[in-house]
Amino acid sequence: MSGEDASPRRSVPRIRLPRRPSRSPAEEPVEIRPPELVGGAPEDVEAVAEHIRTPGGLAAGLSALGAATIGSVATILPGRKARDPWAGEDMWELGVDRGSMVAASDGVPLAVREAGPTDAPMTVVFAHGYTLSMDSWHFQRRHLQDRFGSEIRMVFYDQRGHGLSGKGSRANSTIAQIAADLDTVVSATAPTGPIVVIGHSMGGMSVMGYAARHEATVRERVLGVGLVATAMAELSESGLGAVLESKAVSRVAGLAGRTPGVFTSGRKAFGAIMSPFIYGGSFGDPARMSPTVARFVDELIASTDVLTISNFFETLTRHDETAAIPVLRDVRTTVLCGDRDLLTPLDRSVDIAEALPDAEFVVVPGAGHMVMLEEPAHVSEVLGDLIADAIVEWRSRTRGPSTGHSRAS
User: Fold this and answer.
1) Spatial separation of the C-alpha atoms in residues 309 and 343, rounded to whole Å
2) How far is it, in rounded angstroms, from Cα 51 to Cα 309?
């Protein structure tokens, strides 16, 4: 066989078109709506991929993110005049939910909040992304509570070093450790019963790491997995990874990670470099972003300790969670990404979807890395369908053959 014939062929991803969510009262049965899928011709899919893909390499990654950063500055200027559908919105609404602290395996306290009844039949656990906090799931908490009511309990937590959680050491700022943190949160808040786990960006890496390291639990209890704007490996080639791979940034990160109180200037320099790049790559179209949401994201990033940003530096460029793929092939999985994501480019989601041929692959047109804040209703609907499928699957497992519809043997 020739080298050309032996080359792997990329499968055609399925693209789910945007739809507005319909909300059903808690007392109504959960409705499973068949997904609307569009299959593109190979040349069409490749054209889309070429349009949105950030080319590999440091120069290209820095150039794309640099341009986005400049274009994003105006979104947080106090005098900016733009249509703001979320003006007056309380973006910190999760603060009213039941709160607790859970001790991680190395003793780091993890801040947890829960919404929904403690005896709900399904628990949904959310893991947020790098430099964010659990508050980044603000809209999903509201939309999913409206849709499911008492059917679900939602568990949100701050990753170590983020939000209200304690800071971990550099040695324990790894995907393996945050996967263990996710297991700790699950064990503490939902020790029994079915669960759905959803992760954004680094949170998606947490979920994949959890699946790879806790296969028995995942196969028995996890009935749905949501992977939002994330990557299973090779982040260093483009997007945020291109910035992290920079020798200049690496040197400053080294200073930032030294003994606290010694290299203050190094830590400030690292924050001055990294925060604008992360913010600049957050939105697909900064000019269309709600100023309220834009300032919220900026505040989340700015409030993340520079040592935390530095400590996760290595794991984000070298992680490889492909061991999760065989486990997730047996779990209802949704892969979702914006087509203008500059931090974890769409081709990273394509990689996951191709490795999970039965997964639902959702592309949100015009959205960037903060897709769940840019198109909250769309993302909430997609994740809601994942949860609804999990509820129905659990009911089918627990329903005796004499009480439900008969099945062919």
Assistant:
1) 15
2) 30
- The alpha carbon of 284 is separated from its chain's Cα centroid by a whole number of angstroms, namely 16
Return d(Cα 122, Cα 30) in angstroms, integer: 12
Q: Using DSSP, state whether 364 is helix, strand or coil.
A: strand
Q: Which of 350, 201, 173 is nearest to 281 (CA)?
A: 201
How are strands ordered across the β-sheet holding 109-115? 98-103, 109-115, 152-157, 122-127, 195-200, 222-228, 333-338, 360-364
Going by C-beta distance under 8 Å and a sequence separation of 6 or more, which residues neighbour residue 390? 122, 194, 196, 223, 224, 332
Total residues found in the chain within this entry? 409
pTM summary value: 0.78
SS3 109: strand
3-state helix, strand, coil in the chain (%, to 5): 50, 15, 40
Amino acid (1-letter code) at residue 28: E
Cα dist from 59 to 241, 244, 274, whole Å: 12, 12, 16
Listed as ranges, residues in the chain with pLDDT below 50 are 1-14, 18-71, 73, 76-77, 241-242, 247-248, 262-271, 402-409
Which helix or strand (DSSP H or E) is residue 363 part of?
strand 360-364
Paired sense of beta strands 333-338 and 122-127, if any: unpaired
Determine the Cα–Cα distance for residues 236 and 27; give it in Å rounded to an integer: 47
Rg of the Cα atoms in the chain = 21
Give the model confidence (pLDDT) of 345-404 as tens digits. 888 899 999 999 999 999 998 899 999 999 999 999 999 999 999 999 999 988 855 444
